[in-house]
Amino acid sequence: MNLTITGHHLEITPAIRDYVTSKIDRMKRHFDQVIDVNVIMTVEKLKHVVEANVHLSGKDIFVQVEEADMYAAIDSLADKLDRQVMKHKEKQSSSHQAGSGIKHQTVAEQE
Fold first, then answer.
1. Which CATH superfamily groups domain 2-94?
2. What is the pairing mode between strands 2-8 and 34-44?
3. Helical (H) or strand (E) element with 61
4. What is the pLDDT of residues 62-98, one digit of tens each?
5. Potential cystine with 72: which of 28, 53, 66, 67 (Cβ 3.0-4.6 Å)?
């Protein structure tokens, strides 16, 4: 998994980088097919905006969060990403259930 963190009008400190990395790793525990994650942090007057582009196998997910505090924004972003990744994983696994294809259906015997 490649993680890219950029800041607009914000210096990315090692503490913020470690915090984002720990939150993104939580998402990776639920779904291990994460290819690339791009996180952009922006500070405007009184609001902190954090957005993330996550490239999964078969889908791209975009999430944007605005909060008054940067760490609260990162927490909200991680929660939203986690929910969307779990939703994608559910959809992917439900479409590949065993026994749902024509190959696995039984043919009724004719008398």
1. Ribosome hibernation promotion factor-like (3.30.160.100)
2. parallel
3. strand 59-67
4. 999 999 999 999 999 999 999 998 888 888 777 666 5
5. 67
